[in-house]
Write a structure and sequence with these properties.
Length: 273
C-alpha cells in the first residue's frame, strides 16, 4: 500500500486526529511513512505501543525477549490472562493488529544486546525506550547516538516517572544520556520494579507522554523534550521540569564524531527489555 496516499478506510479511522490543524492529512502521511521501534513491551510499552498503533505509525517494531507473567498484568495492560506464558511481542502485536489493521507490526522476540542493537535500530527512524534497567538504556542510547536516531526515553518507578528525548547527534545544545549520567550507574542504584514496585497508572501517564513526543518528532510539531526532563509525581499529581544541559566534557557527545562512534559501539554486552 502506498505511503503517499490514504485509503478511504484510513481517512475514516484517523479523521478525529487529522482534523487537528497541526496534524492534517500531511501529518497522517508522515506517520504512515514512519518506522518506530519500541523496546520493551511492558508497563511503559503498553501505552506507547497502543497509542502509536492507533495513531497510525506505518511500521512499529516491538523488541522484547520476555514472556507474559501474571505479576505483569497489574501494569502491563496490553496483555491479558489469555496471554500468560506467551511471548510479550506476540501478545502485544496481536493487540495492535486487532486495534488497527492499517499498520504493520514487526516482532523482535529478543532482548536488545550489544550484538544485535545496531542491526535492530538501523531499521527504524525513532526508538522509544520502554525498558527498565540502566544497562539496556545506556546501550540503546549509545546505539541511537552512533546511528543518528532520536531516542524518546521514559522511566517510572514506585509512584513517579520521567520523560525526555535524546538527540545529541543533531549537534548544537542537544544533550545526551551520558550528559545526564557521565558514569554508568551500578545495578544497586537502579532497583527494578520487581524490587521497589510501581503504580500502574503512573506508567500510563509516562507512556502517554512518550507516545505524544514520538508523534511530535514524526510530525515536526511543537517543542520536543531534548534538553528537558519532565517529571511526574503521582502522589501530588504534580508535574515539574528540569533542564538538561550538554556537558562539554561528556564522555559520549563531547568529543569528535569518530571517537563518539567508537565509544558507542564499545559498550559491554547486556540483556534486558
Ligand atoms: Zn553527552
Amino acid at each position: 500500500m502506498s505511503e503517499h496516499v490514504l485509503t478511504a478506510g484510513e481517512h475514516a479511522y484517523y479523521q478525529r486526529q487529522m482534523v487537528l490543524p497541526e496534524w492534517g492529512e500531511a501529518g497522517q502521511l508522515r506517520l504512515k511513512a514512519a518506522r518506530v521501534l519500541v523496546v520493551g513491551a511492558g508497563g511503559l510499552g503498553a501505552p506507547v505501543l497502543q497509542y502509536l498503533g492507533a495513531a497510525g505509525v506505518g511500521v512499529i517494531g516491538i523488541a522484547d525477549g520476555d514472556f507474559v507473567e501474571v505479576s505483569n498484568l497489574h501494569r502491563q495492560v496490553i496483555h491479558t490472562m489469555e496471554d500468560l506464558d506467551t511471548p510479550k511481542t506476540t501478545s502485544a502485536a496481536t493487540r495492535l493488529r486487532r486495534g488497527n489493521p492499517h499498520v504493520e507490526v514487526v516482532e523482535h522476540m529478543v532482548p536488545v544486546t550489544v550484538a544485535n542493537a545496531a542491526d535492530l535500530i538501523s531499521g527504524y527512524d525513532i526508538v522509544a525506550d520502554c525498558t527498565d534497567n540502566f544497562a539496556t538504556r545506556d546501550l540503546l542510547h549509545a546505539t541511537c547516538h552512533a546511528l543518528g536516531r532520536t531516542l524518546v526515553s521514559g522511566a517510572a518507578q514506585m509512584t513517579e516517572g520521567t520523560v525526555t528525548t535524546f538527540a545529541a547527534f543533531r549537534g548544537g545544545e542537544n544533550p545526551c544520556f551520558r550528559c545526564l549520567y557521565p558514569t554508568p550507574l551500578p545495578p544497586e542504584m537502579t532497583p527494578s520494579c520487581s524490587m521497589v514496585g510501581v503504580a500502574g497508572p503512573v506508567l500510563t501517564v509516562i507512556g502517554g507522554l512518550q507516545a505524544m513526543e514520538v508523534v511530535k518528532e514524526i510530525l515536526g510539531i511543537g517543542e520536543g523534550l531534548s534538553g528537558r526532563i519532565v517529571m511526574y509525581d503521582g502522589l501530588s499529581a504534580g508535574f515539574s521540569e528540569i533542564p538538561l544541559a550538554r556537558r562539554a566534557d561528556c564522555p559520549c557527545c563531547g568529543g569528535s564524531a569518530t571517537a563518539q562512534g567508537e565509544r558507542a559501539m564499545a559498550q559491554p554486552p547486556v540483556t534486558g527489555g
